[in-house]
């Protein structure tokens, strides 16, 4: 497998896409540092990996805290000697009319959804360079490509993730670090659970998709795994939509 023997840091690994990604990378031979809140669920992720014969540790961290990136880097080095892969997946997504939001909410979204991605990449950069290079995979969102109502701060943050991916790929490439992004469509996660009318949500999603089934978090995990491993060794600066043919990028 193209990630066998590598160490992967996966944020938001307690549930959803992050958990599916952590489990898939471990299944394919990577050692996993599962990062996030919800310590009970985070431990479940790690316990499942270990019981299946994999290697993983949990790092309970609030990534909106600027000190968290250093803590994650230190734990990764102590447990596995350093990181080869960073999957920036953790995000928050307050919903509501844009004119009712405030500066504190906006700042909180960008602290987790953008600043933490930057700080983690920066903190793990020396380890990746020491190990001959690495891969950073950032999770954006299909909502950036049309602009979703009542998710202004979230959509704006995901647009920032796309720009961050493109620019960092330019700077990190000469150091052997690739940077790509995936933009998931609608999947059964906490991010879609916030919608009040679930029946309408999924009817609309299936009507818009070219593939007429509900996406599974493992579909996104497989795309992330492609960017994480050596199969994509000559690909950087790209954003891949994983949305069942919803948008045309």
From TrEMBL:
Pfam families: adh_short_C2. Residues 6-205 form the Ketoreductase domain. Its EC number is 1.1.1.47. Keywords: Oxidoreductase. SUPFAM superfamilies: NAD(P)-binding Rossmann-fold domains. InterPro entries: KR_dom, NAD(P)-bd_dom_sf, Sc_DH/Rdtase_CS, SDR, SDR_fam. One of its GO terms (biological process) is monocarboxylic acid metabolic process. GO terms for molecular function: glucose 1-dehydrogenase [NAD(P)+] activity. It comes from the Bacteria. Belongs to the short-chain dehydrogenases/reductases (SDR) family. This is Glucose 1-dehydrogenase. It comes from Solirubrobacter ginsenosidimutans. The lineage of its organism: Bacteria, Bacillati, Actinomycetota, Thermoleophilia, Solirubrobacterales.
């Amino acid at each position: 497998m193209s990630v066998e023997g590598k160490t992967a840091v996966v944020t938001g690994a307690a549930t959803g896409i992050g958990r599916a990604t952590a489990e898939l990378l471990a299944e394919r031979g990577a050692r996993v540092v599962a990062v996030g809140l919800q310590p009970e669920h985070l431990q479940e992720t790690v316990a499942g990996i270990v019981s299946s014969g994999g290697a993983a540790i949990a790092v309970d961290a609030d990534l909106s805290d600027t000190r968290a990136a250093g803590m994650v880097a230190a734990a990764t080095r102590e447990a596995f000697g350093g990181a080869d892969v960073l999957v920036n997946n953790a995000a928050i997504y307050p919903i509501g009319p844009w004119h009712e939001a405030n500066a504190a909410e906006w700042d909180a979204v960008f602290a987790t959804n953008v600043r933490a991605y930057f700080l983690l990449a920066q903190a793990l950069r020396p380890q990746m360079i020491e190990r001959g290079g690495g891969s950073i995979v950032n999770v954006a969102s299909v909502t950036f490509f049309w602009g979703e109502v009542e998710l202004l701060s979230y959509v704006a943050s995901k647009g920032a993730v796309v720009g961050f991916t493109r620019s960092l790929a330019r700077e990190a490439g000469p150091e052997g670090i690739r940077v790509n992004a995936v933009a998931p469509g609608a999947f059964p996660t906490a991010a879609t659970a916030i919608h009040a009318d679930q029946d309408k949500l999924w009817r609309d999603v299936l009507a818009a998709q070219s593939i007429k089934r509900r996406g599974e978090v493992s579909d996104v995990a497989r795309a992330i795994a492609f960017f994480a491993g050596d199969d994509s060794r000559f690909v950087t600066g790209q954003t891949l939509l994983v949305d069942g043919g919803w948008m045309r990028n």
